[in-house]
Amino acid sequence: MRHGAEAVVRVAVATLWRSPDEVRAVDAPALGAPAEVGAWVAGLAAGPPRCSARTASE
Question: How many Cβ atoms sit within 10 Å of the Cβ of residue 27?
Fold first, then answer.
């Protein structure tokens, strides 16, 4: 892969963090192989919102 080249990611769940120490406990089900998508989404729905599209893109 070259720097600046287009890349395609095909995964069941994609979550981005700014650094490795910012992984939230609620994201644990999404980090397994295979990802537990249902458990991850249920955990997200149960907790307070952490960011919006705007804060995630800043």
Answer: 16
Using alpha carbons only, what angle is made at residue 27 by residues 21 and 30, rounded to the nearest 5 degrees? Answer: 120
Range with the poorest average pLDDT among 6-10, 25-29, 45-49: 45-49
8 Å CB contact between 22 and 34:
no
Tokens 């650094």, located at residue: 19
What is this structure's pTM? 0.48
* Spatial separation of the C-alpha atoms in residues 38 and 1, rounded to whole Å: 32
Q: Cα 8 vs. chain centroid, distance in angstroms?
A: 16
